[in-house]
Amino acid sequence: MPGPGPVPVPPAPDLLARARVLVAPTVGEPVVRGLERITGRPVERESGSAPSEPYLYVGASLPDALRTGRLTWFHSVNAGTDALLDSGPWPADALLTRTVGRMGERIAQYVLAWVLAECQSVTEFAAQHARAEWRRIPSELVAGQTALVYGTGRIGSAVAGLLRGCGIRTVGVARGPRAVPPPGFDLVIGADADTEELGTARWVVAALPLTGATEGYFGARRFAAVRGASFVNVGRGATVDMEALGAALRAGTVRRAVLDVLAEEPAAPGADCWQLPRTVITSHSAGITADEDVVSDFEACWDELCAGRTPALAVDVARGY
To answer: Catalytic residues, which ones?
Structure first.
């Protein structure tokens, strides 16, 4: 996992006070109205050319024409910024912030739903119903079992907190161990000390961002250490070596897989991922961002910037999150 980078430097409040506000053509009207309320100035739709004055921009991607030194702040409508940063050089001194909103809550409920569905044999009962078959299947209690959660930020912590509320032991994996675990975790270990926990975990939850250090992170070595855990990926698809996952599923070391994200999206009907045994793919739907998420997180960043502080949602563009 990448190490800590420099703290992003926010634009000066006086620069922010005179910056024009631009949004991508795809940004909805509820967001535009919210931005106008927050900034107290008109919001302009991006027209393909950069203003001659300082400007801030809200959208999912940054057009090449707007990659200028006059861009003071880009607020992403997404939580992940890997695609944005990979699309071209980032303008010097431009602040990047992201939208999380209630995504952690949504993703946590998604993970819990699949954990409980597995323990209550929902898939098996649905299949039995389709066959008009009456057969009891014993349920499995979640309390006392272990979930290993990779990523201890906002999303990982939300996942761990909800699982822990059901009596599941939650172990986080971060760059290094934490003497005091973040909220939601019973324990946080370093990334180089996960082999033992992988062998005892009932669920392995991936909530990592995509960076140079996390690409292919879940590969043959980690899957070989798993002993019957189910794997749930709510982070980024390219953090998983799909061939290694497929081999682990076929060998039975990974019990099941739930994949909300893939390296290549959308997956074509003939893609190999659809043929993975005991796997469900949910089409990047676990934490869909709502308009109110964008507005609330933009407002939080705006308030911090106007006070001369670096927003909590600022992204270190050097390490990618």
So the answer is: 236, 265, 284
